[in-house]
Every structure is written in structure tokens, then in C-alpha cells.
Design a protein that fits this description.
Chain A has 302 residues and is of the alpha/beta class. The first copy, chain A, has helices spanning 6-18, 21-27, 32-46, 62-89, 108-118, 131-139, 201-212, 226-234, 248-252, 282-299, and strands at 51-54, 57-60, 94-101, 122-129, 145-148, 157-164, 167-171, 192-196, 218-223, 239-243, 257-258, 269-275. In chain A, a hairpin with a 2-residue loop joins strand 1 (51-54) and strand 2. Chain A is rod-shaped, with a radius of gyration of 32 Å. The structure holds a DNA duplex (30 and 30 nucleotides).
Amino acid sequence: MLHVTFRQLKVFEAVARQLSFSRAAEELHLTQPAVSMQIKQLEESVGLPLFEQIGKKIFLTDAGNEVYRCSRNIAEQLSDAEAVLGEMKGLKRGKLNISVVSTANYFAPQLLASFCQRHENVTLSLKVVNREILLNQLANNEMDLAVMGLPPEGLDIIAEPFLANPLVVIAPPSHPLAAERSIPLTRLAQETFIVREQGSGTRSAMERFFAQHGLTLSTGMEMSTDEAIKQAVQAGMGLGVVSMLTLTLELETRRLTVLDVESFPIRRNWFVVHRKGKRLSAVAQAFKDFLLKEAEQMIVPD
Amino acid sequence: MLHVTFRQLKVFEAVARQLSFSRAAEELHLTQPAVSMQIKQLEESVGLPLFEQIGKKIFLTDAGNEVYRCSRNIAEQLSDAEAVLGEMKGLKRGKLNISVVSTANYFAPQLLASFCQRHENVTLSLKVVNREILLNQLANNEMDLAVMGLPPEGLDIIAEPFLANPLVVIAPPSHPLAAERSIPLTRLAQETFIVREQGSGTRSAMERFFAQHGLTLSTGMEMSTDEAIKQAVQAGMGLGVVSMLTLTLELETRRLTVLDVESFPIRRNWFVVHRKGKRLSAVAQAFKDFLLKEAEQMIVPD
DNA sequence: TTTAATGATAAGATTTTGCTTATCATTAAT
DNA sequence: ATTAATGATAAGCAAAATCTTATCATTAAA
């Protein structure tokens, strides 16, 4: 099939269906010679006659039937694709790949869920990974959008804050500082902190914060999740600094308490992030808008 | 998908596969801008970006993946069709619709069978009908080739003889004339004949023959098949005129005998027939050639 | 910082495509 | 025998498609 064109197939389809060159010409708003020429060219590419004329009537040859079958299949493929693409444009369908940094695990699912409720036919994939891996995924364009607390500097990145992310100091309710108010920052130097691993956003923010205030902390154990930190703090192994958003349950059940330290909470934000050249799909764009407009009030209702 | 072209899909496929405009350009022996332009046009028809560029690498968008899926399907359709058509051209595959007049039933199957043995993948359909129906089918282009003893005059017909079709007078072996030699034609006037129905080729040929020799026959019963005539003749109800080719079994088993009448056998032929405008497929042409070249020696071996 | 590679964009030349009008040949119907 | 309809063919024209060269911007690597 060296040089078949869609035009040829379209004209051919009309002729094969009507079994008349003239009728097909009318249907396509063409003159009859135009139709004859298209068919002739198609027959030339195919290398076999597609019609035969017996008296005044025309019939499809076997080869013609084969081409007809084929052209109908192709038309179907195209219209299927057109439908799918149309839905993609219109938000009715799409895939959404989100990666979030571990800590976001405490609120991201809620956001995704309510977004999905509004948009049927959106297939969703959420990956919860640590900051390091997320940076890697970002570099390799493995997701549509990322959610993180500390956007990287180097890469060409677009990062927009959409939710407050206060970091607070936690302690077991039995801790001596639990009852105090306006604890001076320097007081913390006497305590041991259980911290996240190097490279973690929370760890970085925390270190920078204390360094800015001229403090050096004694860090005890390193944990790879906030959950682990909370458990260790509960067990009395030291204090911790975590995002406020991760504490809902523990505060309610009074397993942990937030210390009233001066200059705290550390004011940070959650960012929705993607690389600069990224072509956001309709769905991705919609989700981003959703985060920017509605996340705050969903997570921290008035 | 208003105006997608095969060219666009072809170029797109190469880019999507290589994930590089420049590589695709090399593969297609084009310059890189040519590729960029084709893609741009395709994206315009589709209405969505198909690629995204993140740094130096390009990736398919979701829409791009959909178009890729579609373009591969289309390519597959085309190559399937190309394969089938190629086989049609090369005789490796094809359909063959043959209609034969009732009498040919005695030898046509044998010919078709041996033709099919040589050509695997040829689908065959044989219709055995009376002359009247066959003429109708011919007018409506319902078959590729027909086999008959008396091609019609009116229609634009191409008819070529490929096999001798001698008509002989048959009688039961017990008939008084069975033992005689060189029976004068006029002697037959005293006999009763069992004949085929009006419109039958054999009947026409027979009537014309006797008319030419100035004889009028007394016709008895009319039968619609040669088989019925043979049965009736065996039963002693009269003489018959049939094609020699139908008699193999009856002669061998001595149920019937051929009378040695002057001027007999009536010399006729079997014709392979199709309408003038007919586009013979490769298979049909091959079968026609086969009949013209080999039928005689297959049916009447030396 | 420089260099090499990648893709986008613009301008322009050329080829191809697709169409129309005019005319002819064949066929079926009147 | 005429007539009406169908498709084929030829000539000519306008639009488009396609490609190339030249140049630029961006990015990653040396």
C-alpha cells in the first residue's frame, strides 16, 4: 500500500457504500470525475481493480471488499481515538499521576478522594515516597504533579504553595515542658530530638530554623517516617518536630501534646510542584487548580 | 480528527518510537524541521499536545499515547490488508464463485477439485442450477465464471469452448435399435423421446438439430434433469438425448446403451462464460486458463 | 564558561494534490 | 433510433503540502 491517502479511502468508502460514482460524488459535494480519479489512484496503489462495471451497475471485486473492510476498520479506529481525545480535552477522562512526599500522606488521600468524586473516569495513581526519590521522579518526568514541603532549588521547577504546613514541637503529655507556656527557644537546647533522616524536608527546615536562631540541637535517633517519630516521642525517648497536620489523631486521644515554644510553629507551606516544561493535561491542571483554591478549607475547615 | 494524514501518522510513529525528533528525521531521511512541522500539524488537528519536552528529553503525553495506540492499529490494518491483497494478486488466496448448468454436474466437481488441490487457500463455491437461473445470475453478476453448453446471444458475453460435449441418443440395452448399426436419422421419427424442459440447453440443441434435418419428433414426458431422463429411458418409456459425459456409470454397468444413429453424436461444446466487463480475479483467470488448457484431457483422458 | 545537541521557527521553492470543465463511450430505457 | 444516465479521460488551474536552508533558544555536558 505504497501511497494510500485518507481522502482516497473516504471517497472509496462512499462509492462502495452507494455502489455508484455519481451518487458518491453528490454525497461528497464533488463532481463525478473527481471521484473517478480518487478511485483510480487508490486502485493504482493497491495494484488491483476494486470495482467492476457490468453494464450500468458497478460491483465491488474481492479486492474491493477487502479494502472496504479495511477502510471501515480504520475509520472506526479514528473515531474511537477522536472520542477518547475529546474526553481528554473536556476533563471527562484522564489519568492523573501524583507523587507526594511521605508526610503528605496524612492529608493528600483526602484531597484526591474528593477530587475524584467530582470527576468520574479519572484514573488516579498516588505514590507516597520520600523526598529523595520524589526528586528523582521529578527529574525523570515520572509524574504529573508532586506535593512536597520544600521545593528543590536547582531544577527548573514551578512550585506553588497551597496549604499551610506548620511544624510544631511535640512531647508526651507527661513531659515536664508540657505544662509550661511560652517556653524560650534556648530551653530546647537541653532536650534530645528525634529527627527525620538527612535529606528529608522536615529535617532540613528544622535544622535551618535552629541554625537561624543560633542553636545547636542534640539529635538522638533518626527515623524515616513521621509515624515512627511520633511513636518514639510517645515512648519518652525525646522531643520531635513534625507537621501539625500529622497530629490530628494523637492530639485528640491525648497521646501527644504540642509544646508552646517561642517562635513556633515554624511557618512552612505545602507546595504543588511540576517541572517547567511540563504540559499539564486537562485533568492535571484541574487538580492543581483544585488544590490552590480549595485545599486550605478542606483540610483546615473554619 | 479533521485532517489527519498518513504522512503525519507515519512521522509521528517514528518520533514516538524513538522519542527524538532528530532520530526520527534521520530514520525518515528528512531534516529535523520537516519532522517538527508534521508533528505540529498533527497536534493542531488533534487539538492536544502529543509530546512534552522536559529538559532535553521528550515524552509522550497521555493524548500522545492514545494517538500512538491508534496509529499502530491503523498501520496493522493496512499491513493486514496489504498481505491479503498481495496474496490475491499472487493467486495464493481468493474466492471463486462458479455456477454451472445442471448437466455439468457430472464433470465440473472433478475439475474444481483438482484445481483446488493446486491452489491452497482458494475458497470455492459451486452452484448447480438450470439454464434459466444461470442466465439470471449472469445478468446480475452473481458469479465469477459460468459453465454452460449454450451461451446466450443477447447479453455481452465472452464464451470460450473448453470441452467437447457430444449429445447421443440413449436407449435401454433391450431396445430393438440397440443392436443396429448406422441407424438412419429418419428412423427416430417412429420413436418417442423423453426430453428436458423448455429453455434447457440440451433441449434447444436437440430441437434445432432435428429441425435442421427436417424431422419432427414426438416428445413424450418432460424431465427437469438428465438423471430423470436416464431413469425413464431405463424404464423403457422412450429414447433420450443426453450429453455423453453424463453416461459413464450407466454405460459401464450396461443399464443404458448409446444408439449408433447417423449424423450423431450432435457435436457441441462446453463453454466457460462471463460477461464482457467482468474483472476476473487472479483466481478466476487461473481457473479459466486451467479449463481451457487442461479440462479436455482430464475428462477424456487419452 | 564554552560547547554540542536538541527542537522551534521563518522564509521560500517546488512538487503534489484535488478540483473543475469539457468531452467521449457505453449502456439501458423509451 | 433517440435519449438519458453512467463512468472514463484530458487539460488546466489553484491551493496545499512538503521539504530545505538558515537561524535561534534552551539545555546538558565538558
